[in-house]
Amino acid sequence: MAEVKNKKIWVIAFWAIFALVVTSGIVYFSWTKTDEPATASEAPRCDQKSTMLTETDELNENEVEFTACNFDTEVLQSTGLVLVDAYASWCPHCQKLAPTIAEIADAYAGKVKVGKLNANNQDPAMKENFDFAVSNGLESYPTVWIYKDGQKVDEFTGERSFDEIKEILDKQL
After folding, report:
1. Where are the alpha helices (DSSP H) in 33-77?
2. Residue 59 pLDDT level (bands cut at 50, 70, 90)
């Protein structure tokens, strides 16, 4: 009987140690993972495309195109307010919000930099933008981020009226 009890203890000890080793490995690799691409081929292909807009996307003269490649210089290094509309061209809510964003861009020209980030998860050409947007908090379309002097100060998802967006921006000006 003592031999069976001893065997059970060894089996339990083995599985406990095994679980500890596996858990430690998972924790170690998740902590050591960096957000930087593992290889140069995974890095954003900034020089391969001058634009990430599709033929259905439109910007007015007061809107800027944001990409994973220019986000740092266009948004994070900007002074003042920046509004980023992360969208997908297939998204009906994004399509409804687009004219409002264009209207905001016109109304706040010279006061707020307004632009679009094409984060279409269904277009392989937009993979870098999509991955970048997700790493910055994109969970649904459309998502609008408000930055002030390079720091995110507000965000919202879904459609909003001109007056609602104006109120958000006016609080930050």
Report:
1. 71
2. confident
Instruction: Give catalytic status of residue 91 as yes or no.
Output: yes
Look at residue 7 and give its three-state secondary structure: helix
What architecture does CATH give domain 50-172? 3-Layer(aba) Sandwich (3.40)
User: Does the pTM exceed 0.85?
Assistant: no
- Domains of the chain, residue spans: 1-34, 50-172
Instruction: Put residue 81 in one of left, alpha, beta given phi > 0 → left and psi -120 to 50 → alpha.
Output: beta
Which is the catalytic residue, given 81, 94, 117, 119?
Answer: 94
Q: Of 64, 81, 82, 91, which residue is the catalytic one?
A: 91
Quick one: pLDDT at residue 8? 75
Residue among 84, 72, 62, 65 nearest 147 (CA): 84
